[in-house]
User: Fold this.
Amino acid sequence: MNASSAEPLVLGIESSCDETGVGIVRGNRLLANEVASSVDLHVRFGGVVPEVASRAHLEAMVPTLRRALAAADVDLAQLDGIAVTAGPGLMGALVVGLASAKTLAAYLNKPLYGVNHLAGHVAVDLLDHGDLPTPCVALLVSGGHTSLLLVNDMATDIVEIGSTIDDAAGEAYDKVARLLGLPYPGGPVIDKAAAEGNPKAIRFPRGLTARHDLDKHRFDFSFSGLKTSVSRWVETEERAGRPVPVADVAASFQEAVCDVLSAKTVDAALHHGAQHILIGGGVAANSRLRALLEERAVAAGLELRRPRPGLCTDNGAMMAALGTQVIKAGLRPSSFDISANSGLPVSTILV
Ligand code: KG4
Ligand code: ZN
Assistant:
């Protein structure tokens, strides 16, 4: 292995949802992570509008790239490869990032790596804590996905061992925020509101934890019943003319989500003989999830890896971190005719 492939210098491009991210990584070292978010353009719609997101990516891509290169003090000619999100995500949004990466790679004559966004949420932890000991159970919790993954090899072998059968955890946060009259995205605002509330004020249901559900859905999640339960509770209070205790509802809802997520993650690690657990995705920035999982991991004798909150939400560095792993594993670069895949399964790490 030559010097550059031992510690490859990789540019990562992310555009699967509402964040235009460009990151630069050397080996497991983060050199730059520039993100331009279009979230403000979506707030009044209460969720991401795909067309608006695509147009925002188109406007932000080159300025974000320039900022990343300047922050890392790197020249495009020095790069060992370009990694880009090939899926899953919003089709139009993905296409902007993929076209940008292909253009750069073709012009610079550099290898192109079309990689999986979900695997990127796992790989980003390497930038904070170094190479990942395997097997590792990763809890992936984002706006569009909630899964438990068995990571046998970061670049080549990720198996989904469970997932949500309805809403994603982040989606549940966003929906509950809306019904409490809080702005989009709901995760950070509920996290903040919950800090002032009592998590035991209301006992909301824990999806797929009953004995009869565990046979078939031991490592799966369900949040739509919880969301409905919160909605009914709030309606009842409003109909009775009582003020809704937003902080208590937020704290009790959050407790229900984090209780299930952390219990199932620890159970999955013990079941699969994994000594390490890892969290990734936007909801992994949640303060209660981070604390509760740490508590339960320690009690079970497991080691928890938590990327810093700023790396949990969508960014380009996570794709660069994954690109580095793929290059180190000696995998062949992607062909220039790959297309975006909005439903790319997590087991397909490199397209
Ligand atoms: O991974 P991400 O940035 O984008 C997707 O790939 O979906 O995740 C976005 C999701 C949103 O649903 C947002 O509400 C949630 O992550 N989120 C949080 C927190 N920060 C972001 N959820 C709970 N607590 C947070 N602190
Ligand atoms: Zn994401």
